[in-house]
Each structure stands twice: as structure tokens, then as C-alpha cells.
Amino acid sequence: MKNSAPVIEVRGLDNRFGSHVVHQNLDLDLFKGEILGVVGGSGSGKSVLLRSIVGLLRPSGGQIRVFGQDLDELTSQERSQVEQRFGVLFQRGALFTSLDLLQNISLPLIEHCGLARSDAEEIARMKLALAGLPPDSALKYPSELSGGMVKRAALARALALDPEVLFLDEPTAGLDPIGAAAFDRLIVTLRDALGFTVFLITHDLDTLYTTCDRIAVLSQKKVLVADRIDKVAATEDPWIQDYFQGPRGRAASYAFQALEHSRLQE
């Protein structure tokens, strides 16, 4: 992945809220086609970093380059065009509760692409299918869905505009292990089929081992390390060692090794 040019380059990023410093001189690259897992302790600023990149939060300092363009140098129209190349799945789905799934996914297609409602709804049905939802889910409202279905519906909406970069904020939070594993497989399958890049915030160790090409660890107000999971897990840092070498980390590692061994035996 590193042989390709970064689609997102973050340099010297600062984020402050009053006297509280969240990020200080943070650097990070996201390479085309990779799934980058972003981890860190509570309050390390994972969601703040995501919001800074997608344009929902103006950083206190530093530079963010997306597709080779400095976001601060773009006009509002140019910035909007860049942001339409993003898809975002927020932690709680952020679906419009008063709209059914077909309307939720059609809305960005009508607003940003100027499609007729009938055309937008046809594409919306395809996006729901891509996300693994049955045809009869289209007319359901978010309140009628299970937690797993809400995540898939939010994913379908994030895919509505055929994004080049998909941002996922804790996509498996609240899901049972079977549902979380199925969602992880879906993300990898869609990345392989559609070729997008993924920025994935998670606490799920199984997701990190089975889904991500690289891991970026946020600690001490910056990206402490960004590398393959074996390199990250070997980093001499107290939080990283507690996270990856603790009981849950070791269990996830052993499970992944067993899975890889079984694949080699097939």
C-alpha cells in the first residue's frame, strides 16, 4: 500500500478546545486502497481526527491534504466537491429517524447528484443489497431495525455516492461477536470489489487482526506509531503493550493465527 501516493496527508495537526489540547503536531498518511485501523485510549481524539479530515471540525493548526489538495486553500464549492468523495458511517448510524431506509439513502443522491427520485431509489436499493440487507428492508424505519441492520443501513448510505474514502467510526460497537465478524468480512469484501480506501476507528481487537492492513495508534496527542499490526504490537509503549499483549489482545492474536493456519491448510 505504501508504494502508492497517500490519498490523505495530515501534517502537524493541532486540535484544542479552550485550554484542553487533543492533538499536537500529529502526522498521519492514509494510502490508496488500504484499510487503516485507528486505535487509542478514551480521550485520545480518534473521532476528533476523523471530523477534522472530513471537514466537520476546523483544526486549530496544521495541514490536511486530501487527493493532493490542501483543504484550507479550497473554496467552499471545491471543498464540497472533495467531501462528496467521502463516505462516513457515524458511530450511532445517524440515520434520519423520520425517513425509511430507501429515503435515507436516496436523499444524498437527489441533493448532490440531482437525480430524479425514481433513479435515486433504484440506486438506493442496490446500495442496500451491497450492504447485505434484504429487499424488504427498504421501507423500514430505523426504529424497526436491529443494531446490526442499523449499521448496515448506515453503511449503505455511506456508499450512496460511490466514495473513494470510507470513514467508519466504531462500526462494530454494540454488535454481538457473530454480527461484528460478519460486518468485518463485508468491509473487506467491498473494499476488494470496489477499490475504496478505509479509515476505521475501532476498539475491537478482532477487527484489527482480521480487517486492517495497518494500525495507527493515537497516544500522547499524536500518532505514536502507524504500521502493520505485528510491528505495532511489538512497540515499547505501556498503553500499546497493555492493549495488544493483555488477555484480550493475546486471544485475538491466537484466533487470527489459527484462522490463517486453517486457510493455509485448505
UniProtKB/TrEMBL annotation:
The keyword Transport applies. PANTHER family: PROTEIN TRIGALACTOSYLDIACYLGLYCEROL 3, CHLOROPLASTIC (PTHR43023:SF3). Residues 8-245 form the ABC transporter domain. This is ATP-binding cassette domain-containing protein. InterPro entries: AAA+_ATPase, ABC_transporter-like_ATP-bd, P-loop_NTPase. Keywords: ATP-binding, Nucleotide-binding, Transport. It comes from Marinobacter adhaerens. GO terms for molecular function: ATP binding; ATP hydrolysis activity.
